[in-house]
Amino acid sequence: MSLLIAAVGATIAAIVESSVLTQLLIAGIKPDLVLAMTIAIVILLGFEQGMTWALVGGLLLDLLSPDRAIGATTLAMLLSAGAALLLARIADYPGSLLIGVITIVLTFFYQGTLMLLLALTTGTEMQPLNAPAFAAIGIVNALFAIATAATIRAWGRRFGRVDRLTW
User: Fold this and answer.
1) How far apart are CA 132 and CA 36, in angstroms?
2) Which pLDDT band, with edges at 50, 70 and 90, does 162 fall under?
């Protein structure tokens, strides 16, 4: 995946997340589509594509959400993508179960970081963490990440893998 394709894909995912998914709540919760896809992409395709996805997707989510300070979602998304890359490198084999578990864990990290950044930038007080809601969002995010990973793997089997740097 080239960086241009990653940027266009993140743009489409951010638009879908900020428009369609706000109206179509899944079991009363709104999944973080850009986060879930970022985690799968950074784990399977590497640093450049994943960080491009996180940067463009986070910035567009900031611009499309009127109640967010510009840069808060972007920073939380970049930190989450970096943590996903680190966890995937430690685990060495990015299986679907591992991608799902990493996504659930990083959903808590992303939501907490975003709440902290928004509290610091907007001057509002930090809300208490709602663990059951975050767990439900994490599970839905994990399903999106696993579906994204399966799509990336199928694309790779069909069209071949692009060589990338190994760390």
Assistant:
1) 18
2) low
According to the model, what pLDDT value does residue 133 have?
85
| H or E, element range at 7 | helix 3-15
Burial classification of residue 101, based on how many CB atoms lie within 10 Å of its CB (0-12 exposed, 13-18 middle, 19 or more buried): middle
Among 62, 18, 11, which residue's Cα sits nearest to residue 38? Answer: 11
Q: How far is CA 142 from the centre of its chain?
A: 10
In a domain, 165, yes or no: no
| pTM of the shown model | 0.88
SS3 state of residue 27 = coil
**Helix ranges, 16-130 (H):** 21-23, 33-45, 47-64, 72-91, 96-122
CA distance linking residue 107 with residue 129, whole number of Å: 12
Is 46 a member of any domain?
yes
For residue 164, being part of any structural domain is answered with no
Domain range for 60 is 3-159
Tokens 């208490």 belong to residue: 128
The structural domain count of the chain equals: 1
CB 17 within 8 A of CB 33: yes
